[in-house]
Design brief:
This protein has eleven helices and 14 strands. The chain is globular. 33% of the residues lie in helices and 23% in strands. The strands form two sheets. Strands 1-4-5-6-7-8-9-10 form an eight-stranded mixed sheet, covered by helices on one side. Helix 3 runs parallel beside helix 6 and helix 5 packs across helix 7. With 372 residues, it is an alpha+beta fold.
């Protein structure tokens, strides 16, 4: 718990602050379950609560050991999400059915992923198929989210950015944004990715060769069809095994049928980038950049005659720097009120910029982190 809050109690007042933080998190968890509570609570209380920093977690060893490290370091958070979040994914009376379906999904993919969850379960006491459900709920059609991606190529330098618009935790999620640093398993590349406690998949990821990916959802998965592989896990698999744009591109184009998505891919070394779009019941299609700009905003664009307001806003602004990109990510015409974090990968400068800890996150401070 001490590591989770990034607090090192020294003396009576430090202990009081720690207890106070615990009380705050319990209140946030309760608020998350009250209809409309999150918005009203945030407007009043979040103004006086200190902005939390993201947690940073180092993963190493084999699959089981990685899960064990994850579970030990984030034990309290994973247990909290089990109680207030994962168990509420499924419709009333259907939790057992979807737990079983999640098990079936994991039986059909690389057993290393189940082994990683097993290590996490041993460290936390959370049931294995609950965590399996937590890692496949979108693919099973149990939720929806909205996001924004903006990627720019400025004189051969790629800036890869993503607003994660997915705040349905009533403020608890502000304390759960986590940076995972992976040392690389045998035969796997080093990666840095963003996710939440209990996730072995990723929402945003970049590897040591500059291959970066981000996820947007464009529709619900089919509740009646089991996915071949959860999207979040597929993204991590690709980042751990692909060192150039073409190999990652082919893996994305060959993704088996499953939930609709938009995945942004960029290669900092070659300067290439593309959006890969999969609608329900169709294969994956590739959308190439419009000049130096590439965007995605939860709308299917392949062969579409619809206008692209996000791209038009980017082109009108003509961003050329990190500062320009930050201004765009927090622009009222782009930023959603449910933005839980905003990230920019700048591989050329070996830097990640991350805004988190308040909602909408992009209006706040972007902290700088070294990538590799």
């Amino acid at each position: 718990m001490r590591k989770f809050l990034s607090v090192k109690p020294k003396g009576k007042w430090a202990v009081i602050r720690l207890v106070g933080s615990l009380v705050i998190l319990v209140v946030l968890a309760v608020i998350a379950l009250i209809p409309g509570g999150a918005t009203n609570f945030r407007q009043v209380a979040m103004k006086v609560i200190p902005t939390p920093k993201p947690h940073i977690l180092e993963l190493s060893g084999n699959s089981f050991q990685r899960g064990e490290i994850h579970g030990k370091e984030m034990k309290w958070a994973i247990r909290l999400l089990d109680k207030i979040y994962i168990r509420y994914f499924a419709p009333d009376g259907k939790l057992a059915v979807f737990r079983q379906r999640a098990e079936q999904v994991f039986q059909s993919i690389d057993p290393g992923w189940s082994e990683e969850l097993r290590g996490m379960c041993q460290a936390t006491g959370v049931e294995e198929n609950i965590l399996m459900l937590g890692n496949s709920f979108l693919d099973l059609g149990l939720n929806a989210s909205g996001c924004r991606q903006i990627h720019i190529n400025t004189n051969g330098k790629i800036l890869h950015s993503h607003n994660l618009d997915w705040d349905n935790l009533g403020g608890v999620g502000n304390y759960l944004v986590t940076i995972y640093r992976s040392s690389g398993k045998p035969g796997a590349y080093r990666t840095v990715h963003l996710a939440f406690p209990g996730m072995i998949g990723v929402l945003d990821i970049i590897n040591e060769h500059g291959i970066a990916m981000s996820f947007n959802q464009i529709g619900f998965g089919d509740k009646n069809t089991l996915p071949k592989i959860p999207v979040f896990i597929a993204m991590r698999e690709i980042a751990e095994s692909c060192r150039d744009f073409e190999s990652a591109r082919q893996r994305l184009l060959d993704m088996p049928a499953g939930m609709p998505f938009l995945i942004g891919l960029s290669d900092a070394k070659s300067g290439q980038m593309a959006i890969f779009e999969r609608d329900l019941g169709s294969g994956v299609k590739e959308i190439t950049p419009d000049g130096p700009y590439l965007t995605a905003d939860n709308i299917a664009r392949f062969n579409s005659r619809h206008t692209n307001p996000l791209l038009e806003q980017v082109k009108a602004t003509a961003p050329r720097s990190t500062e320009d990109l930050i201004a765009l990510l927090r622009n009222p015409k782009i930023l959603l009120g449910c933005n839980i974090y905003s990230v920019i990968f700048d591989f050329a400068d070996n830097t990640m910029y991350l805004a988190s800890g308040e909602v909408p996150a992009a209006i706040g401070k972007y902290r700088k982190f070294t990538l590799f």
